[in-house]
C-alpha cells in the first residue's frame, strides 16, 4: 500500500531536529549550569537542538557525550490562559513512571524563569519508533493489528490506574469533566476566534445542554494518538506516551472516543476493508476497550464524536490565533485556518446524529 502523501509530508515536517529557532533561543550556558545542579548523572558539554514537531510547547533535544535528554518549555510571548502547562506534564509523568506505565523518566522542573526565560522540565529521550501514518502502510496486516491493540491496551492501562494511590488525587477537579471541557474549549476558541462560523455557534449552544452523565473518573491524556507515543524498535509495544500537556482527571471516554476519531473522521475511514488491512473495526475496538476496563457497553458515541471534533477545531483555532498574535512556531500554522470550518461542519453533523436540531 502506498504511503499517503499528506501523512508522508507531515512526518517529514515533524521528524528529527533542527537548529534552534531564533524566537526560541536562550542562554545555553545557564541551562547547562541548571542541568549540572539538578539532573542526576549529567555530564557536559551540552549541545541543544530543537525538535521539528510540536505546535504548542517548544521541545528540545539536549545532547551530551553519554546521553540524550528532552526539554519541554513554555513558549515565550502572549499565551492563552491555562495553556502550555509544562508543570502539569512534569507532575503526571513523574507520578506514572514508578508504576511501570510507559512514560519517560523525568529529572527536574524549573520554575525560575531567569534560567531560560520560561518554565521548563527535563526528561529522558526514549529511542524507538514514532509512527505518523495511521494506516501503517509499511507493515503487514498482522503487525498493524498488533500495534493497534497495543495502543488500546496502553490507554486502558492508563484509565485503570489508581490516580489517588500515585498522588494524583488533586490533578483535576471532581465531576462534570465534559461540561468543564466544553466550557474550556469554548473559551479557548473565543479567545482565538478570527471569523464567525455558524456550525461552531450551534455546537457552542448545544453541547453544554446535552452533556452525558459522568460515571467514572480517571487520568485522561487529552491527546492520545499514534504519533504521541514511542513504540519499541521491533516489538508491537508502547514504550513511552508523549505530550501530556492536556492531561487531567476526567471522563476516560473523552480519551477513548478521541482515539476512535480516526475511524470516523480520519485516515482509517478511507480504508475500504479494515479486516484485510489488519485494523480492528470500531465495534471490535469498543468491545475490547469495554473488556479491558470492565464495562458492559458504552453510551451513544455520537455526542462524544461531536465534542471531539469541536475540541479539535478549538485547538486548531488556537494555532490560527497564535499566527495572528505572532507567537506560532511553525510555518505550517497559517494553513490550519482552512481546517476549522470543515471541522465545524463535521462536528455539527455528529451532533445531529445525536439528536441535535438546527
Describe this structure in words.
- The chain has 358 residues and is an alpha+beta fold.
- The chain folds into 2 domains: 5-124, 2-Layer Sandwich (Phosphorylase Kinase, domain 1), CATH 3.30.200; 141-353, Aminoglycoside 3'-phosphotransferase, Chain: A, domain 2.
- The chain has helices at 5-14, 28-38, 86-96, 141-160, 177-192, 198-206, 252-265, 274-277, 282-293, 302-325, 339-353; strands spanning 17-18, 47-51, 59-63, 68-73, 106-110, 120-124, 218-220, 229-231, 238-241, 248-250.
- The mean pLDDT is 90.
For this entry, give a set of tags.
Aminoglycoside 3'-phosphotransferase, Chain: A, domain 2; 2 domains; 41% helix; six-stranded antiparallel β-sheet; 358 residues; alpha+beta; 11% strand; two-stranded antiparallel ribbon; globular; Phosphorylase Kinase, domain 1
Write the topology of this structure:
Blueprint: H1 5-14, E1 17-18, H2 28-38, E2 47-51, E3 59-63, E4 68-73, H3 86-96, E5 106-110, E6 120-124, H4 141-160, H5 177-192, H6 198-206, E7 218-220, E8 229-231, E9 238-241, E10 248-250, H7 252-265, H8 274-277, H9 282-293, H10 302-325, H11 339-353
Antiparallel strand pairs: 1-2, 2-3, 3-4, 4-6, 5-6, 7-10, 8-9
Helix pairs in contact: 4-9, 5-10, 6-11, 7-10, 10-11
